[in-house]
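note to self: dont lose this again. the chain is below, predicted strucutre after it. 265 aa total, dont forget to put it in the shared folder this time
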Amino acid sequence: MDKVVASAREAVADIAAGSVLAVGGFGLCGVPIALIDALLEQGTDQLTTISNNCGVDDQALGVLLYAGRIRKTISSFVGGNKELARLYLTGQMEVELTPQGTLAERLRAGGTGIPAFYTPTGVGTLVADGGIPIRYDSDGNVVETSRPKEVREFDGQQYVLETALTADFGLVRAARGDRHGNLVFHESAANFNPLAGMAGRITIAEVEELVEPGEITPEHVHLPGVFVDRVVVVGTEGKKIEKLTNRPRTDRSETPAAAGEEASA
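---
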């Protein structure tokens, strides 16, 4: 039951060219940076990634993107990555766009064995009707678009049929994990991580802190160890902040608290 491996390099060693990866994280929050860097070092290419976004320029999944290792991404937001836009519009990469909530549910459905589901999201748009560019040629001409999806009516409302997503590997990052693979994610890092972990046939978790079985009580487990195959301890180094914003400092005499103190005096 001990699922701990010695290094990120060892954890991703069997991820082969052409693999499909479900990758947790949102922007740079909760992204399995160490596993991605190990894949970069390993040289694995022709990857398909399923993630909310495909990195932030040359960070997170962006390191694989800039190295030419990703052939297709299934994502909900790609607008913040200039290199992805360049590769997409010049025919070097395929992009399958899907609404964010739909993407999350497609991963969850894949992890629970549900092949498809109906949702009102996208009805009456190109999401349901088809026609979203998936692939361009080198001259910028659209050569492949999304296909129309089945739409049905339930109780007077229309719903579009969306299929589940599964992956060869799920890559996630957790704040804490035990040797059995039970994981706890810190606050908003829970974003897509549990879903990516569920959808992977083999799921690899990098954890900041390793604890012994039993130290994480069942009610605090966010992703049960039954979904996790490998655990690697990476610590807290290397975590990145997408946009650092500091609140401007103010003179204490200008604060409401200070004004109240003066009035009471």
